[in-house]
Request: fold
Amino acid sequence: MKVSIIGSTGYTGMELVRLLSKHPKVELKILTSRSFAGEDISDIYPNLRGKVDTKCEKLDLNKLAASSDFVYTALPHGVSMEVVPELVDRGLKVIDLSGDYRYNNLKTYEDWYKPHQSPSLLEKAVYGLPELNRSKIKASGLVANPGCYPTASILALAPLVANNLINKDNIIIDAKSGTSGAGRKLSLGNHFCEVNNNFKAYKVANHRHTSEIEEKLTLVGGEDITLSFTPHLLPINRGILATIYANLEENLDTAKILEYYEDYYKKEAFIRVMEEGILPEIKNVAGSNYCDIGLKVDERTGRIIVISAIDNLIKGSAGQAIHNLNIMAGWDESLGLEDLSLYL
Amino acid sequence: MKVSIIGSTGYTGMELVRLLSKHPKVELKILTSRSFAGEDISDIYPNLRGKVDTKCEKLDLNKLAASSDFVYTALPHGVSMEVVPELVDRGLKVIDLSGDYRYNNLKTYEDWYKPHQSPSLLEKAVYGLPELNRSKIKASGLVANPGCYPTASILALAPLVANNLINKDNIIIDAKSGTSGAGRKLSLGNHFCEVNNNFKAYKVANHRHTSEIEEKLTLVGGEDITLSFTPHLLPINRGILATIYANLEENLDTAKILEYYEDYYKKEAFIRVMEEGILPEIKNVAGSNYCDIGLKVDERTGRIIVISAIDNLIKGSAGQAIHNLNIMAGWDESLGLEDLSLYL
Amino acid sequence: MKVSIIGSTGYTGMELVRLLSKHPKVELKILTSRSFAGEDISDIYPNLRGKVDTKCEKLDLNKLAASSDFVYTALPHGVSMEVVPELVDRGLKVIDLSGDYRYNNLKTYEDWYKPHQSPSLLEKAVYGLPELNRSKIKASGLVANPGCYPTASILALAPLVANNLINKDNIIIDAKSGTSGAGRKLSLGNHFCEVNNNFKAYKVANHRHTSEIEEKLTLVGGEDITLSFTPHLLPINRGILATIYANLEENLDTAKILEYYEDYYKKEAFIRVMEEGILPEIKNVAGSNYCDIGLKVDERTGRIIVISAIDNLIKGSAGQAIHNLNIMAGWDESLGLEDLSLYL
Amino acid sequence: MKVSIIGSTGYTGMELVRLLSKHPKVELKILTSRSFAGEDISDIYPNLRGKVDTKCEKLDLNKLAASSDFVYTALPHGVSMEVVPELVDRGLKVIDLSGDYRYNNLKTYEDWYKPHQSPSLLEKAVYGLPELNRSKIKASGLVANPGCYPTASILALAPLVANNLINKDNIIIDAKSGTSGAGRKLSLGNHFCEVNNNFKAYKVANHRHTSEIEEKLTLVGGEDITLSFTPHLLPINRGILATIYANLEENLDTAKILEYYEDYYKKEAFIRVMEEGILPEIKNVAGSNYCDIGLKVDERTGRIIVISAIDNLIKGSAGQAIHNLNIMAGWDESLGLEDLSLYL
Reply:
């Protein structure tokens, strides 16, 4: 399949290029970049040298449409919706990695982001979390790839919410992400010396991903969920670990709740539910498309603590976007996603 | 004052040596070490070279008593209580940095640690959190220096608990610590390659500091508190950041609650309450004796998020132990503790 | 091909397992471990979970021989030579990752290591640096996989030495390695807090790899080479960067010398010679089997500075060991080694 | 003494503020900043909160002159020389932390930097390396504070050069610096994810500090020195370690050469010469004003390897600038510089 990437020189774009370069059914065609048009992608990311030396181009929609079957848009929020309708109109299948098409509810998007420019497409787009929406993804021509924090959070909570095991008023997600989540755009907050040796929370009580998590979990559980979500910045490159707290509705032990998880994810290739006593760590998933999930019931407080870990650039972005491509194309879902974490 | 340190070659012991070496009223006398007796402390920690080149000795209680007015015990839990009674018997003033004398309730200690060998001393010991117990510390001959996580957690919660602003059944402390908190003892969990690039929770729902936090906050608030405490390991050397969640009892905004904090800590030299919109970060406190506290009310959920940051080896250990010495000796509380964080 | 690994639970062993698990022609058979016999490899390295869950075993030579065609020995120096002769006697093909069979000259080995227990095998073993010894490797039954520092150093210097471009008395190799090079064995020197934020030289003027580099470069150039080699410890997990200095024999510019390198390595899949103005960085090779090489002539001093970068666990160890397997088996040399660096 | 800082919000400026805030004889007056005029320095660097909350101002030369006895200029190269003459004209004593006044030879400056705007002042300025130039510094009104790499390099080599122990044609300095050396200015090269886990050389064979090192060592030795200097970027915040190679003129052993060093630096408070067998590490000096120096003779090659370590922001910049102030003011040289490295 001929695949092009719009916005190929951000970290997500680079990760798509890297992963797609070893996908056996994908032929990488056009890589667009506003900042680096005319330069080889392997001069911008020298890890690609010798494997992918494609020259980046400015976006030319007609040329792109003529040479591609499938397009990834790896653009900032608000920019994607300027481009995606044009792609859909030209009959291209699209996976958008921004937040622009993730919401069912237009008002929620506009409350947390900005006025939407193609609300009608919002209705057609499918939220690309394969574990929840596989059949809709398969049938769709426009998939909105989930956010990184929502991926880790929703996958960790869905079995509890779907089975009505927790009180829906007391969910707290304390999430920690590596710095690649902030992208390659320069800012003081991502300057090496400011991040190294440091740790901080940011956007407390107002991060946009809160609304994405709430909307999707509300759909899973069938009743409104409002929760607390706090992101933190880790002095590492890759990985998210979410520590999630909820009050149990009834007195179940760790083993019993793990059964619900095992059952919920029993067909999933990229979810690894840890047995009792084992909890996820970022180093076990960074570099892979896995989401590791572990949990423990705290009998003293009647609370469950669920921990999930992903690579924010893979399962939280480019890897999930390839998983969605595999589903849309009817291929083996693991194609191009076989890498294990390097551990070290 | 003549001060000796029992257990001077762990990270806490080294930190005491480093800080006391510039304390204007302290003369460092004996440094004991089981592992390094006969070696100069500056061969073990070459940062001290030229300033403190004292030879470490095996513990000789009589010699120690003869040459010291004041003793720090920086020993593992369970080992301290074998030594401290001997020191107290010899009339020495003692600050113990282990968990052995921190509890009012013997049963709590024994439930979370092990059988106690000097329970009568437990009653005499004072919990050395200056902001809560200043006058008792001043009058005491045996001070139990608080744990690092409890310091960050109790200071962050005390104003809320003391003023009955929060529901006491829904307190969640999600804490993250640098690796020096685990000390210098070798373990796979602290091997460089296993910690670097990684992040994980540990001892979920059963870390001993849970009980220390609960006991002290219960004393502050006058009614039983049971809470969730989850420690995590950060790939940095120093610093703890605690993100704390509680449900507000009434509808107060961030500014109003900050007033309670400002008032509660208005005389404290080492507490910095951040104004609205600013939150603590580890890099602002690492290397100093400050505890920075910031908070935000999340009106959507009726929840307050309080964030505190300390240097686990200073305000969470050796610095607080010097603060306690200053109080016990009747000196200016800031002596030897003027250092600011290096920021970088 | 049925492949077993003796010593599978060190970092090198794990890396072999991880890489071989995606090698299309390899069936992983027995994984031995003295420390973890009876445990699943994926409990020791949870990144492998779901892909390689083999139970580790104690070494049983007969069982191993019965079920394997090919064996990797990833054992400490001095231990390998106790096992390798037994494997060779049983007709197994072996790649040894220790230093025990790397030397042509027995005396050099014994001067820098210890008395050798199977000197006759030393003569049969082939030094497994594919770029220099491809045909011998292909014909051999016992390949000694090169050390990590020698791989980076020899590949960087071979074109200069082979073409007599430099003075052989003034070669200086200043090398810097990530901490995984020291393995998983606990030591204070690899304790997280001791390595993090730190940088140091170690084993100055007496690291064993000096002799390995000298012997192999002497063979390349045909005359004795004695050089300075200084290893340093980087606070990162993976990667070696070597900065190499030599005095040019004649007045050649950067472009001209790069031509020699391009020519020398023109058929090599895993050597990437950087064009003028570009120099290697660890982040471009970590996670891959590439050796990146760049250089610059300093006309002010008549000196050339060559810089090479590898992943010490891949091109410097397990990856090169798979490259050697591919050569010995007559397969495409890149099988199982297609991974690019993750860059981040 | 009333001290002001021009350019107080870069990393060097902040470090001056932090260190001067505990200097017993200094009253900090005006802090200027182009970017942050009107903001409190403690909002820009919250580590200073509660100790230094001065509001930053735009530079007003007359106001500055009226309220200050002494001025630090912590400005970029090329900008300093626009300001320093005005300060000198107004009778202020000045320590300039840029490269603008470091050179004796105007042509060298202009070859490596740019045309000079106040060459006459160049002649009056004294190079502020206290260990070499103490008496001139004491008598001077304009001191050019040395570069960070030159400080580490010159101090490591001066005893060898002064005593004619080495061949002056084969000196190689392989230096590695933490990222704070690049300042707070945003660039892709200092973006967290690009530096973390990475290591690289930069400005190979053309870094400006080469010329500074050469000029000063030439003065020490009395004959022209041309050398190789290669800087590298370490993924840490603070610290420089320089590994230096030279060919010995005669056959001296490590112990003998250490005697030369001990003698050369016997009166120096901030030089710690390591005994045989011990080598400097960054973690022993970061946070302090020490320069640690160790060395080893490699008898196989007739070469000496000298290793020096400093904190680039302290001994390599702000600390040395305070040392110079202490000398110029006739105070105890260690005032304000007593801090030891934190080790962790």
In short: Chain C has two domains: 2-124, 149-312.
